[in-house]
Amino acid sequence: MASRTGTHSPAGICKSLPERGLLLLMVLVFLEGSVLPLGAASSPDVTHQANSDNHIVKEAGHNFTKKPFPVLSLDYHHIQAPFEISLWVLLASLMKLGFHLIPRLSGIVPESCLLIVVGLLVGGLIKLAGEQVPPVLDSRLFFLCLLPPIILDAGYFLPIRPFMENLGTILMFAVVGTLWNAFFVGGLLYAVCQIQPGNPSILHQLELLPCLLFGSIISAVDPVAVLAVFEEIHINELLHILVFGESLLNDAVTVVLYHLFEEYAGVGSVTVMDVFLGIISFLVVAVGGVLVGAIYGILAAFTSRFTSHTRVIEPLFVFVYSYMAYLSAEMFHLSGIMSLIACGAVMRPYVEANISHKSHTTIKYFLKMWSSVSETLIFIFLGVATVEGPHNWNWTFVTVTVILCLVARVIGVVGLTYVINKFRIVKLTTKDQFIVAYGGLRGAIAFSLGFLLNKDHFPLRDMFLTAIITVIFFTVFVQGMTIKPLVELLAVKKKQEAKRSINEEIHTQFLDHLLTGIEDICGHYGHHHWKDKLNRFNKKYVKKCLIAGERSKEPQLIAFYHKMEMKQAIELVESGGGVKLPSAMPSAVSMQNIQPKKLPPAKPAERALSNLPKGREEEIRKILRSNLQRTRQRLRSYNRHTLLADPYEDGLGDLLIKKQKMIELERKIKDMNNYLTVPAAPPDSPTMCRARLASDPQAYSMKPEPDSVPTIQVDLASPQSPDSVNLMDEFRRAEQQHEEDQGLMMKPPSGESGPKKPGEEDGSREHKLMRCLSDPGPSADEDEDEPFLP
Amino acid sequence: MGASQTRSEHKYQDLADKTGFSLEQITNLHKRFQQLSGNEDTLSRQNLDNIPALANNPIRNQIIEAFFDKRNQHQDEVGSFNEIGFEQFLMVMSHFRPPTLKTTEEEKEALRKEKLRFLFNMHDTDNDGTITLVEYRKVVEELLSKSGAIEQETAKAIADAAMLEVASTNVPDMAPDDFYEGITFEHFEQILKGLEMESRMHIRFLDVDTTTMRCGKSTS
Question: What angle do CA A89, A92, A95 make, to 5 degrees?
């Protein structure tokens, strides 16, 4: 999963920077601590003032006592709530910033630990100032505001393939594992509490059901903590999805157990009927949550089909539908987390096919931003709540809880893996089991659930809270800090950082079909068979409804290829065109190297084609760059509501018009280069339709390519070829030079049967480029006025 | 009944050692083989063609051809059979066995090579040891064949891009005059290193007999 920790400080930090970071930290912490008492102090004054004013006015009736006009007055109460919220958010963000300015620290200690410490400091400061700590980890605030962004981020970017492949394992861990943990911890705790016969302690008051409730609260692996820690250790995909998937799916179990035990703790006994109802309830909660999420996801996908003219609010649909899915699920006491995951996962493939590139980036960055801030806030609040929370320390209870949690987790994982490995094809090794067991971190959800408990029904609530906090601290600090060195020590397989290549994509698809075919030959309906059936259903019916225009028919391989081309084009454009694409093509290999050389020997021009001299290339690039810089000057005003009528697309439109002119010029040398003839472009190709759909009112009108026009080959896979997109102006200037070179430039990768694309493909690529070039990407989007090529 | 059973078990034991399947799996696969071949001793291309579920598969021809490819029998022969017996059928199937918990690293490496070799043979139809551009283009075209009206040019472009990628990663310093003949097996291995074939290219072979659940539609 992409790192949410923001940019790292550049190398070569001067010594003052870490100190500055620390100073910033201290300042913020003091600020935080000082503002709150100020707020508390000033508000009664203001209200008093207001009252007295009112009183005076009422009393005076007609005669107003004239006071000097207040030039400057302080009214903190007016803005208190939003101000404090903003201060907290600011503190959280500055903390994040500060941690990365101190290089060594972020390597040793995971961010979550540091944030909890900061929270402790802030909480301590507030308490020192004598003020009441705000109930920051209030359950409503937590469950309705802080948790959803993190879960949505996780769900939207959930890697579906490994998740589905390991779904059985994940469900086993989530459901059976959590149940085991809950009952083991709860039951044994109760036994231990009853043990001490000699001195009747407070523990003897503890009934079985509250113990089981406590067990169910403490046993659930927490997605926030897991995300925070696992993000930094980069283990392989399988383990990551196992632990993370478990943390997400155990929400249903936790919800049911929690409500069940809470409901009946008052009564004091649970009958078989209740247990049966509980099981039914679990199914309802889980399946219902997923259904609610899926429905909202489909609605969002359907809505996004029509947003081609209002691109600006596309991200909003994604966020609002998802949040409503969460709230709807919570309304019925279904599993909100599962609903959110289902919503994000269902809507993503369709929404991404429909929305513009800019919206895609927006969604990605907003989600990452919100979830990052949320996570930071949660950990800080954990620290603050620890300082404040009503504590009731009981050595026996707390230590037994911690030990039991660990033991239960280990036994659970080992036992379940033994059973699971009988059904898995790729078995889980001992190393894997260790990481899964060790990665079972508890977090703020447990605390919030404990906080929700009613003190009347649960007189020992404070003790519970203390124990929960201790377990959380233990898992986050001890396990969180040591998991990284342990991963190194055990040489656990790490995540593969390599970018997905087109070959891998081709072969993944090939493998899918191959394995489905082999399964069919073998005669049994396995996993691949059903996946294939689902894919075909999806392609035949669902995509038609939910994806706008012609993209509904686009097969996955082609979609991937286009995406890759776009990425390469953006990369090249961002790097100024002069640098070769760093990632994909660090070599000088071009299309000419792989084309079979079947050139008729007599044509000198074609022979010349195969030697594109390096100097010429450099010159081309230089000219390109200067040309692009001239385009920069053209600025137009833009409409806030469309946001599409910006200089990027205008510039490209001009270039494309120029390209048309160049095509005319092409005719002159057509005879020499017979390989330039191209099949006629169909008049209204799908890609053109899509392009029109994606266009905005201000966009240029693209003439369909005339037939039998030798096209400019735009082979973006080659390092040189993206230049050819922008070589229009270049042609005009280079016209004076020898014509062979012109042919050269038109088709820098030579080869008589080079990959030719018909006109509409070319045109569509322009359109696609337009769609993507209008968004310069993360690094260059500060300035709206900046042209599309930096 | 008893005698023939021990005889077949003995025969299967041979096969089990050669291919690595368990006896139950071999029994099941034999039943399936009988079903497909119409209780004959050999299987022809026609038999496999008639499997209805394969009709939707875009690469069915390659898959069927792979069964009849002599290179997949690990006996250093080339060419193709017209019909295959149960042993050849089993040999081809054995390429899809998963690694077990006890598989060592070297064995995993060997398994991966074997699977990649199978894939390579599927692409390299003229058996010259390399996958040329034409062959690769055919692969991509076939992959996209069932996805509606795909422009030929797109398939070509994708294949070309893929080829270019292989060339770039494996032979980065090619002079402009050099010609990249085709993807050799080493390059093929290199380019698919990230996919971890030994964990992905497998299907579940059942120990329990499920062939009775399928009606005999698949027989010719």
Answer: 150
Our CA angle for A115, A120, A125, nearest 5°, is: 125
d(CA B170, CA A388) in angstroms, rounded, equals: 61
Residue-level pLDDT at B150: 64
**Pairs of residues, one from chain A and one from chain B, whose beta carbons lie less than 8 Å apart:** 204
Helix (H) or strand (E) holding A450: helix A444-452
Quote the CA–CA distance of A191 and A169 in Å, as a whole number. Answer: 31
Please state, in angstroms and rounded to a whole number, the distance separating the CA atoms of residues A200 and A69: 69
Taking an 8 Å cut-off on Cβ atoms, the answer to whether B58 and A513 are in contact is yes
Interface subset of B 32-61, CB within 8 angstroms of A: 32, 35-36, 48, 51, 53-54, 56-60
**What is the per-residue pLDDT across A100-143, written as a single tens digit (0 to 9) for each?**
888 777 777 888 888 898 889 888 888 888 777 777 777 888 89
Say whether B59 and A593 touch across the interface (CB within 8 A): no
Asked if A366 contacts A320 with a C-beta cutoff of 8 angstroms, the reply is no
Distances in whole angstroms, Cα of residue A486 to Cα of each of A222, A435, A490: 21, 9, 6
CB atoms within 10 A of CB A144: 15
Instruction: Supply the Cα-derived Rg of chain B in whole angstroms.
Output: 20
Contacts of A724 (CB under 8 A, 6+ apart): A712, A713, A714, A715, A745, A746, A747, A748
Q: Tokens representing B146? A: 């069932």
Query: How many residues comprise chain A?
Result: 790
Q: What one-character-per-residue DSSP string does A580-645 give? A: PPTTT--S---HHHHS-----TT-HHHHHHT---HHHHHHHHHHHHHHHHHHTT------TTT--S
pLDDT at res. A23: 57
Contact criterion met (CB below 8 Å) for A266 and A210? no
Q: How far apart are CA A785 and CA A771, in angstroms?
A: 17
Which of A346, A217, A356 is CA-nearest to residue A289?
Answer: A346
Exposure of A37 by Cβ count < 10 A (0-12 exposed, 13-18 middle, 19+ buried)?
Answer: middle
Stated as kind and residue range, the H or E segment containing B95 is none
Write out pLDDT tens, residues B66-103: 888 888 777 777 777 788 888 888 888 888 887 777 77
**CB-based contact B180 A520, cutoff 8 Å:** no
pLDDT of residue A560: 77
Alpha-carbon torsion, ordered A432, A437, A439, A442, to 10 deg: 160
CA distance A236 to A497: 10
Per-residue pLDDT, A762: 43
For residue A167, what are its two tokens? 């779904």
Residues of B in contact with A536 (CB under 8 A): 56
Dump the DSSP string for A404-427: HHHHHHHHHHHHHHHHHTTT-SS-
Q: Which two tokens stand for residue A27?
A: 């300042």
**What is the rounded distance in angstroms from the CA atom of residue A218 to the CA atom of residue A449?**
9
